[in-house]
Amino acid sequence: MDWVKQQTAGKSSPRLVALDWGTSSQRAWLLGEGGRILAFRRREFGLLGATGDDPRSRTHGYEAAFDEACGDWLEADPDLPAIACGMVGSAQGWREAGYLTIPTDLAIGAADLTAVPHPRGVLHLVPGLRVAPAADGSVAGDVMRGEETQIIGALGLLPRTERPPTERPLTIVLPGTHSKWTRVENHKIVSFVTSLAGEMYGLMMQHGILGRTATVGVRNDAAFERGLATGTSVPSRGLLAELFGARVLVLDGLLDPASLPDYVSGVIIADEVRHLLPDYAAEGRILLCGNADLCRRYAKGLQVHGVATETVAEEAAAQGLWHVAVTAGLVRPTPHKNAEKETP
Amino acid sequence: MDWVKQQTAGKSSPRLVALDWGTSSQRAWLLGEGGRILAFRRREFGLLGATGDDPRSRTHGYEAAFDEACGDWLEADPDLPAIACGMVGSAQGWREAGYLTIPTDLAIGAADLTAVPHPRGVLHLVPGLRVAPAADGSVAGDVMRGEETQIIGALGLLPRTERPPTERPLTIVLPGTHSKWTRVENHKIVSFVTSLAGEMYGLMMQHGILGRTATVGVRNDAAFERGLATGTSVPSRGLLAELFGARVLVLDGLLDPASLPDYVSGVIIADEVRHLLPDYAAEGRILLCGNADLCRRYAKGLQVHGVATETVAEEAAAQGLWHVAVTAGLVRPTPHKNAEKETP
């Protein structure tokens, strides 16, 4: 088993099974009152591969994967509701959960969820978001699936005074294989765009000449910042020339091959930031949400342009799933004792 | 055997064995007087893989590969000189053949060649070219190996009136896995830069989400031109966003998945051209040298910017090798009959 497991001791009763089920990995949380994390599991298992044209074997495959992820939690507590976000709700996943088209508020309700029956009950899938392309080409289409739930969670994790709706628009950047830049205004997601920076970095390092040029090394922040500077330089020779330039630096003895990966990471992130920041600058303030190391890199990439950032943790997905489940009525928060006192 | 062979009937005597021996493929020509192609072979065999630390087994490996490529030609005509360009002269190849540092004229002489003895005689390796990086960072380093010989050949293939030195500077673009943009002034290569456009296209299509989005299709010039337009648009969302945008077009039913590869090719080439053209615009005229289909794509990408192009064929490498062999005195051209008449 390739599970990463984590158990929180405590007396809180389980209230919700929540999954962030992506293309290549799966995170499962057992949540107690208020979305408190009681247990957490992660494994490098995502969508099933091609399962041929037989929908029955496809369904059986996902049922088995779901049972492996959280069957014991549901066995112990059969009435627990279950909710999932991510690519499991795509056409390549268990069941297509559709998209909400932006602009949309973040109050995803019961009618927006897709119920997938399974032997232990029902799994509720969160819809993705899409940008509808304009017929005249002035707006490009885009899609996200899973990140909408992280955004809901991230906004809930902000200090209460910072939560939208506020007067100030907010940009949220979610770094990853396919990074998302998202604009929130008046409690609505009004635009977003995807960059495949993370995928490109992975392809270059796993299969390309840069991966063959690099040697195994330790993290080198100075090399990353040097890559950022290269990728930010004006005039720009462009990403395609600067990536080959990384190899030349090594050939010329000007860059340690063990530091090449960090340098390349800087070049790629700088290219993403320089192109997307103009449309997503938010009065000099951006919220980062995701893997801590990646968020640190993006924070530095944005700092180059004078943009301050705040970071919220990856657990945003768990909080988002809790929030959606409450909004949709899958769970009813137990009133706080204080609230009970206030009741006449 | 994975050879592609071609034999030209004729009475011309062999004068030179010439190889363009790259990382992943090898082309071998038997050349007659004036560089006339008598026979041609190509195979998808390039450099040896990692051969461990044993230099003797490495040498034996390259000797065997060389013998397989052209041993029969040398067996039939043991006094034929042999010359090679390309990555075979790199540190990962048979023998490191060094670099000439630009600015350099294109008259590569005997002293510039590296002689590698082998059981049938000597193979002469053509050096690569390098741009020395400026200490203040104002000039980025770069390298080429093999393309210098194609350039020499391409210039020889130009109509005589067009050959440098002329008053007009010339830009030569060699599209490929690692495209080269080269500036020639007064018979000297004065600058060049490399883009890994071709490698990135291959990685995306072989290993990335775009390859999984695409279906097998036929060539679609309109999709390529649409990709060019996207990659040229102002303001630019950048290569990383536009590549993901290609997938969204397919999801939205706005692009046939069978046409995705041509669209992506257009996006990538447009990004290369928009960044490198400013430094390499040559009074609105550029010479393209390489694979015919790739050259057509670059010609269209340059046309978007109002730049006219001429294309010379891939055989430029054979002509370049002949030219270097003559300059270095490995072969002496037989005087033309006309020339003999002029001799008093």
Q: What this model shows, in words?
A:
The structure is a homodimer of 344-residue chains. The first copy, chain A, starts with a strand and ends with a helix. Chain A has ten helices and 16 strands. Chain A is α/β, with parallel strands linked by helices and 344 residues long. The model of chain A is unreliable at 338-344 (pLDDT under 50). A seven-stranded mixed beta sheet of chain A has the order 1-4-3-2-5-9-8, sandwiched between helices. A six-stranded mixed beta sheet of chain A has the order 7-14-13-12-15-16, with helices on both faces. A three-stranded mixed beta sheet of chain A has the order 6-10-11, with no helix packed on it. The radius of gyration of chain A is 22 Å and the shape is globular. At the A-B interface, strand 14, helix 3, helix 6 and helix 7 of A face strand 14, helix 3, helix 6 and helix 7 of B.
Q: Briefly, what is this?
A:
Two copies of one chain form a homodimer. The first copy, chain A, is α/β, with parallel strands linked by helices and 344 residues long.
* First-residue to last-residue Cα separation of chain A: 52 Å
Q: From N to C, what is the helix and strand string of chain A?
A: EEEEHEEEEEEEHEEEHHHHHEHEHH
Give the % helix of chain A: 25-40%
Largest interface: A-B, 42 and 42 residues
How many β-strand stretches of chain A? 16
The parts of chain A where pLDDT drops under 50 for at least 5 residues are: 338-344
Biggest beta sheet attributes of chain A = 7 strands, mixed
Mean pLDDT across the residues of chain A is 89
Q: Any idea what the radius of gyration of chain A is?
A: 22 Å
Q: What's the number of structural domains of chain A?
A: 2
Multimeric status of the protein: homodimer
CATH class of the largest domain in chain A: Alpha Beta
Can you say what the CATH homologous superfamily of the largest domain in chain A is? 2-keto-3-deoxy-galactonokinase, C-terminal domain
Using the coordinates shown, work out and report the CATH topology of the largest domain in chain A.
Answer: Nucleotidyltransferase, domain 5
